[in-house]
Specification:
With about 230 residues, the protein is α+β, with helices and mostly antiparallel strands. It contains six helices and six strands; from the N terminus they run ααααββββααββ. GO terms for molecular function: glutathione hydrolase activity.
């Protein structure tokens, strides 16, 4: 989310992210962000310090912004899409700000519907199937349009899988301005980003920011999805 916002903030606000051209720039920024994202993994097992530093860097975002062409798009390789995307699922989210400005942004998940389809008889807790969110090592695909799985997200004992959860608390001068987040697996990243853009960049009211139709692209497959 931060990388997408850093890229889009390089354009004039709000004119540079408005209208059909603004949508095109958003889609292109999402492609770049999803390419970088697949280099992430559990920091207890993978050194992701440079990846995270790049994702938070305005200089890195400026470099990606220069690669966005306002008149055309490209194949996934152009965006650095070295690894296949994972298709995570589910989640529930809640955002709360109380009268004293205490704030919570909480996303939880058991992954698929009813998780692993197992209920603990002693606790009544439905067990998750989060292992599905790991990238799975396999032989190279005969389909040359599908890149290999991401090594940083390969399964290991005790390792946490990559997640799309994006619970976000927005502060300005130490004061709470918003609590945002979403459900929907991979759709979370784009959904949360677009609500943020609608409210803070395009100055929509909170309800309109959430209800506005959304655009989605995860780089691989190279398909744009949209709400009509």
């Amino acid at each position: 989310m931060m990388l997408v916002l850093n890229i889009l903030s390089q354009y004039g606000i709000p004119s540079g992210v408005s209208g059909s051209l603004g949508v095109h720039r958003l889609v292109e920024a999402l492609k770049h962000a999803f390419a970088v994202r697949m280099n992430l993994g559990d920091p207890d097992f993978v050194d992701v310090s440079k990846v995270i530093s790049d994702m938070l860097s305005t200089n890195f975002a400026q470099g990606l912004k220069k690669k966005i062409n306002d008149n055309k798009t490209f194949d996934p390789n152009y965006y650095g899409g070295r690894w296949d995307q994972i298709n995570d699922h589910g989640t529930s989210h809640l955002s709360i700000i109380d009268s004293e400005r205490n704030v919570v942004s909480l996303t939880s998940t058991i992954n698929s519907y009813f998780g692993a389809l197992m209920l603990s008889p002693s606790t009544g807790i439905v067990l998750n199937n989060e292992m599905d969110d790991f990238s799975i090592p396999m032989k190279s695909s005969s389909n040359l349009t599908v890149p290999p799985p991401a090594p940083a997200n390969f399964i290991r004992p005790g390792k946490r899988p990559l997640s799309s959860m994006t619970p976000t608390i927005v502060l300005k001068d130490g004061k709470v301005k918003a609590s945002v987040g979403a459900s929907g697996g991979l759709y979370i990243i784009a959904g949360t980003t677009e609500v943020f853009l609608n409210y803070f960049f395009l100055k929509m009211d909170p309800l309109s920011s959430v209800l506005a139709p959304r655009i989605y692209h995860q780089l691989i497959p190279n398909i744009v999805s949209y709400e009509n």
